[in-house]
């Protein structure tokens, strides 16, 4: 494997609307991000994945783009964006931009023209039908919307204000590659590619993901604008398994650097039910899924991403961890478990201080279109509002989007105005200022893990081996050259008993105080540690 910078990197995802507001309008912005770069530098991260800041009517909080080469006014200006690039570079932090090219906003000039002029080239940039078929939208209801102007239906796998692009059109594809080159020329270091496995859709055959031409398009994209080996590309691929991940990320295929896979996230939901039916952590299943991705995507044949949280997911502590007595300890346990595997770790804003889900109590506290659509559907199906709110409180995307908690003060130090989403009331105890002041905080565990990845070859190249342990204990080794590293995590609040191999050379990281005698160890609630064993 030719080593690239992202093999040792840790990437930090910023959701701009919720990170830091510089002007008091209640919405995070680019100057706000710039003001916090020193904080990110202290954490040690290598790159920022920036969720969309393009011009947008914000029907889906920026994932509905109306102009790919302009900045949304609420976030700032192109000059602010260029200053972010410059200031991040001074701190050796790269910028990875979100690429949303499965769909645009219905306010994009292409779609405006497509509706007004059915004979225009732009009309064929989108997908039209005289009659809808049974394809459904991810956000609920049909994936087809009737357009009065054209008297035809257009495809939208997400909001009806997010019409899907027709990737079979070669002119469209070239325009997208030109847009990508525009940002590369400005100095970005790559793209996170939103639902990229959907660009090969074949609606007539009811194919939404992994269409037959998907990899042809990705190889064409790579050849057009991604040949620089220093560009990181990570694809959001909900349907990926390890074999498909090799197609995306094997270096000789010249497609992407890596993918986000969601098999472990799927364990949050009850089998054969929709995402709103959540379930408790099944540690044996988690071991199976994460271990498969470690062993079946070997070095040289692909690369893995490692994450618990992002802007679409509930906070890991609220869905699987402990938000009470063991909040800090369980947060450190999840971090240690994941960051010592092979792959590129992604930290979602607030994860490094142990932020939790928001205790939503009323409908008017919600913003996310997916949650609001579900609320309507659930009402129509006769489900009580309190049941639906319980589900949204646990799974809804707004949980990840409440403003970053910087201080214990007013509006958590996020804004001097009225925030666009409510501030979690626990900001008085969970905030950056408190975390930085406490050398035993979650922040410093993340900082230690970030530094370790930059230095340790075994994290990049070492073989992975799952150990046979009690159900609630996730333990594995990483073997590199003559050295063996043992990772042990108790993913429960119950005491577990474990026999450890004799011969401890070095303690690498821990969230607990280890006893002197480790041969027969009693693991307390959420204990987690890594040891280097004597060769």
Task: Write a short abstract of this structure.
By secondary structure, this protein is an alpha/beta fold. The protein has helices spanning 16-19, 30-35, 37-43, 78-90, 109-116, 170-186, 214-225, 242-249, 263-266, 283-295, 316-319, 327-339, 369-380, 385-395, 398-401, 432-437, 442-455, 457-461; strands spanning 11-14, 47-50, 54-55, 67-71, 94-99, 128-129, 144-147, 152-155, 190-193, 232-236, 258-260, 305-306, 344-348, 463-466, 473-480, 483-490, 496-499, 504-510, 520-523, 528-533. The strands form five sheets. Strands 11-10-9-5-2-1-13-12 form an eight-stranded parallel sheet. A five-stranded antiparallel sheet has the order 14-15-16-20-18.
Oligomer: single chain
The best one-word shape is: globular
Give the helix level as a range of percent.
25-40%
**Helix vs. strand class:** alpha/beta
Fraction in beta strands? 15-25%
How confident is the prediction overall: mean pLDDT? Answer: 96
Record the strand order, biggest sheet.
11-10-9-5-2-1-13-12
**Count of distinct strands:** 20
Give Rg in angstroms. Answer: 23 Å
**End-to-end CA span:** 26 Å
Reported for the largest beta sheet, the result is: 8 strands, parallel
Low confidence ranges: none
If helices are DSSP runs of H or I spanning 4 or more residues, what is the number of helices? 18
